[in-house]
Amino acid sequence: MTVRSRFFTEAEGQAVGVENAAAKGDVLLVCEHASATIPEKIGTLGLSQEVLSSHAAWDPGALAVARLLSQSLDATLVHQRFSRLVYDCNRPPESPSAMPVKSEIYDIPGNFDLSEAERFARTSALYVPFHDRVSEIIAERQAAGRRVVVVTIHSFTPVYHGKFREVQIGILHDTDSRLADAMLSDAEGSALTVRRNDPYGPEDGVTHTLRLHALSDGLLNVMIEIRNDLVANEQDQSAIAGFLNELMGKALSSIDE
Amino acid sequence: MTVRSRFFTEAEGQAVGVENAAAKGDVLLVCEHASATIPEKIGTLGLSQEVLSSHAAWDPGALAVARLLSQSLDATLVHQRFSRLVYDCNRPPESPSAMPVKSEIYDIPGNFDLSEAERFARTSALYVPFHDRVSEIIAERQAAGRRVVVVTIHSFTPVYHGKFREVQIGILHDTDSRLADAMLSDAEGSALTVRRNDPYGPEDGVTHTLRLHALSDGLLNVMIEIRNDLVANEQDQSAIAGFLNELMGKALSSIDE
């Protein structure tokens, strides 16, 4: 048994969730912060149940919206089945945020002074198989002559360090802004407050997945950030997914690659 | 095909070499810098053939000595089949030396400004499977109630930054010095110059493999550094392997775990 297989209990299975694997659409949805689950082996990281179920541990609503988009866009969805507090799959192992010692206002005691063995176990069990799987799906599609569009789905907290955020939907990009530009242009006049690289941008290190899988290969890509109070229940999740489905469909059909 | 399988050509195979897998001895030999081979996908890293075959790329003689010890100690040997200039398996991904931009006096142009995708590919193809394999072997033996002793085999250049090194055999350890202490004590009076944590020590970050696999589990461990002018031909390699075999055998039988 390898480190990664010993990391999880039998019931937990493994790190990567893949849904709608046989999808025919161009979009590949990625949800790195889909889950608040902490593997049994890790325990509570010294945190209260309140923190462990808060946005510090995951992006509430992101997986639900990603699943709806997976259906409406006929898109394969790859999601991480464990909390970013254990390993944040949108960060490379050399980033201090990969296994964070602090998240907004909370210290993460279980991540203080991690041994090299513990860092290796998490990197090997959570990060590598996740991106290996995304990479594998992209390579298979490219080999079959299919177009691949990488879209990552995130949510953010309305109040951060005590300040309210006005932006409702963030359209984030790194050096390739083709898809983001088209979506932002189509979103003009929308009732929702849609902004470019807000509340985060590439300078915050949030475009790791885009850099890994899209920028290196020239694939269309975008990162979507949804304010989590807009996706707190099923009805609202449906509304936001519908909005994004429309926006993305329009943008993609307008881009002539 | 995962990133790691696409990283190598079919002829190259994969990163990890395992020899004497069914060995009955307690020692597990690890040779992280066994090879100067650069994967085809990587090219020359902008280096001359001279540098690519120098100690910058590998530890000359280390694999040869490790193979002799593998026979005499009846020890399984795990070795890296590609150069440390691509990924140094004795360094974690967060270390700048993992994919070094400089090695002693040489710049490594092919490692300047590596993309996150390239860093991921190397980590995933070279580092993770290597230590996963070591970890797997240790876990299997522990499950079978066997004792495991982790011994890493390295060589160093006699002249470093223009200065000659007097030490001939370095016995290196981190916080657990049990095996190193016993070996150093047995080496007293030897014709060879054997020294503790010389020419490197844990402060140089060279005990990563020991930390990963031995310190975390309380396994006896040591890192052996051989001055490479002493293992430049088969006869000398035999002599040094004989010396180390004797030293390690004596030390191990004297330690009452």
How many β-strands of chain A, per DSSP? 11
| Sheet with the most strands: spatial strand order of chain A | 1-3-2-6-11-9-10
Largest interface: A-B, 30 and 30 residues
Q: Outline of chain A, from the CA principal axes?
A: globular
Q: How many independent structural domains of chain A?
A: 1
Biggest beta-sheet profile of chain A: 7 strands, mixed
Determine the mean pLDDT of chain A. Answer: 96
Please report the distance between the alpha carbons of the first and last residues of chain A. 44 Å
Poorly predicted segments of chain A = none
CATH topology call of chain A = Aminopeptidase
The CATH class of chain A: Alpha Beta
User: What is the SS-derived class of chain A?
Assistant: alpha/beta
The name of the CATH architecture of chain A is 3-Layer(aba) Sandwich
Number of helices of chain A: 7
Order of helices and strands of chain A: HEEHHEEEHEEEEHEHEH
Estimated helix fraction of chain A: 25-40%
| Share of residues in strands of chain A | 15-25%
- Oligomeric organization of the protein chains: homodimer
Query: Can you identify the CATH superfamily of chain A?
Result: Zn-dependent exopeptidases
Report the C-alpha radius of gyration of chain A, rounded. Answer: 18 Å
Protein name (chains A, B): N-formylglutamate amidohydrolase
GO molecular function, one term (chains A, B): hydrolase activity
InterPro entries (chains A, B): N-FG_amidohydro, UCP029730
Keywords (chains A, B): Hydrolase
